[in-house]
Amino acid sequence: MKGQLNIDFILAVTLFIISILFISYRVMQNAFLMRSEVDKEQKRLLGYAISTLIIFDKGYPEYWNSLDNVQKFGLSLSPYTLSRDKLNAINNCSYENYNKIKNLLSVPIENDFLLIITNQYNEPIYKCGVEHKLREIIWVRRFAILDGNIVKINLGIY
After folding, report:
1. Which pLDDT tens digit goes with each residue over 64-123?
2. Strand bridging mode 149-157 / 138-146
3. Maximal C-alpha separation, the chain
4. Cα within 13 Å of Cα(88), Cβ side
């Protein structure tokens, strides 16, 4: 009986290989899902940090209406109170201004942001940033005061 393979041995090896392939597939699938969740959480944390700077930080210099001499970005006059002059300076920002804001906020190269400030009727009143149709966006929503009215700050991180 030399050289003959037993059917039980062939079946056991086949089941073993199928099991190993199935386990490998599940591990790879879970690793991909976990990486995706980590990326989303990193974007959420970045968005929260940027939104905190927007509503709490006055920036440097404290009063500015143009991005030409801004060294530290911040849109507030006091905590939760936004400056209309600063918002006017960044509204519909150009590509140059967007990149300057991105650098001032220390946004990583692989990420982009979109800042939309809406009034109490959810109508956009200020907008700055880049819109991507194909990339998933993580939104951070905060509230602040502008000229005595409550506004919603929608910050999207791509």
Report:
1. 888 888 999 999 999 999 999 999 999 988 899 999 999 999 999 999 999 999 999 999
2. antiparallel
3. 94
4. 7
- Sign for the CA dihedral angle at 114, 119, 120, 121 comes to negative
pTM check: above 0.70: yes
Tell me whether residue 49 is exposed, middle or buried, using C-beta atoms within 10 angstroms of its C-beta: 0 to 12, 13 to 18, 19 or more: middle
The token duo for 111 is 């990420």
What are the distances in angstroms from CA 133 to CA 50, 108, 157?
22, 20, 13
Query: Residue 59: how many CA atoms within 13 Å on its side-chain side?
Result: 27
Residue 141 and residue 152: Cα distance in Å, rounded?
A: 7
Contact 50, 155 (CB under 8 A): yes
Task: Break the chain down into helix, strand, coil percent, rounded to 5.
Answer: 45, 25, 30
Q: Name the residue with tokens 């905590």.
A: 79
The residue to which tokens 């998933």 are assigned: 136
